[in-house]
Amino acid sequence: xxxxxxxxxxxxxxxxxxxxxxxxxxxxxxxxxxxxxxxxxxxxxxxxxxxxxxxxxxxxxxxxxxxxxxxxxxxxxxxxxxxxxxxxxxxxxxxxxxxxxxxxxxxxxxxxxxxxxxxxxxxxxxxxxxxxxxxxxxxxxxxxxxxxxxxxxxxxxxxxxxxxxxxxxxxxxxxxxxxxxxxxxxxxxxxxxxxxxxxxxxxxxxxxxxxxxxxxxxxxxxxxxxxxxxxxxxxxxxxxxxxxxxxxxxxxxxxxxxxxxxxxxxxxxxxxxxxxxxxxxxxxxxxxxxxxxxxxxxxxxxxxxxxxxxxxxxxxxxxxxxxxxxxxxx
Amino acid sequence: xxxxxxxxxxxxxxxxxxxxxxxxxxxxxxxxxxxxxxxxxxxxxxxxxxxxxxxxxxxxxxxxxxxxxxxxxxxxxxxxxxxxxxxxxxxxxxx
Lengths: 330, 95
Hints:
The complex is a heterodimer.
Chain A (H helix, E strand, L loop, with lengths): L4 H4 L10 H12 L12 H20 L1 H5 L8 H26 L5 H9 L17 H21 L5 H29 L3 H20 L11 H6 L7 H19 L9 E2 L5 E2 L5 H11 L3 H14 L1 H23 L1
Antiparallel strand pairs in A: 1-2
Helix pairs in contact in A: 3-5, 5-8, 7-8, 7-9, 7-11
Chain B lengths: L7 E7 L7 E7 L3 H12 L7 E6 L11 H9 L19
InterPro entries (chain B): PaaB (IPR009359), PaaB_sf (IPR038693)
EC number (chain B): 1.14.13.149
Protein name (chain B): 1,2-phenylacetyl-CoA epoxidase subunit B
């Protein structure tokens, strides 16, 4: 049950965490038990998950922007209906995730406000622009493909509400990746210009997509405790490698070239990619990507433009509740 | 500016005739009508349901996980409540 109300009453045990409780908690994690909202948990576990799940939710919501950019310009009605359904799904995913984050005791309003204030992060990938229709194909194929790689192990995450939200998300995400690949396939079987558009799109997105898995294991700051708590089951580099190995043959089928001339294939079949430019990643995270300001401005505008709807709904609900009490009193 | 909180609702969906409503998640809405509409949009985009219930989260009383033992252990020792506890000779057939 997703009730935040029950969590707020919980005593704040920061600093005084009983070692016995912490050991018991770890034993439950080690036994693959799921932790539920009203169970005791270390304050740091709560904090880590609130950060991770809310960032994940923000990413789904901001992720609607680059794709929404092409809804009115989709080449056919079929593509338009599919893209619209995909963007609606992203919104739904954001909502499942906010609901899961809220069970840890922070309200959705607070989480959203933190994002709008620029205090919470979202995935760096959504700070890149969608310049051509092929980018919609690439996003579905690669961005959603990378997201699936990340999300499948999260279905077994130790925190019950997060794991359950991920199961729903993964079920829906598969359509996203397939529709993206189909767009790429159509372009690659089309005219020379269309194929060139697909290649150009892959060239621009390949490296940012590899960065989606996060910093290399040697420098990742959250990995150790997340692994101990079974929030994370594979390291950033392990997932990135799995993704590359799965994607290279898909690109070959399309007849597209991965923009990494230094890529080699091991005897054991793994595709070894070249060094990633982490300065670019850090720049995008620091707010200096191509679209950071646009994305934040669009989210803030949408939130402000929607304020009257929230106010009207609240006023209507208050009026009806008032009328009901008055009628009951008669 | 902090946004005022909108009430939380728990959503239950019955997937097919004859099955029970099952908890699927929660959502925020200012009243019951909007909660039902939002539940339709969020939780049944692929024909998942034939019926939806929405319940204010604040109306739910939950058992305390710390008292799990006291609540549920008494049933664990009562194996005679299960059919396999009783011996029926094979010749009697399925029972």
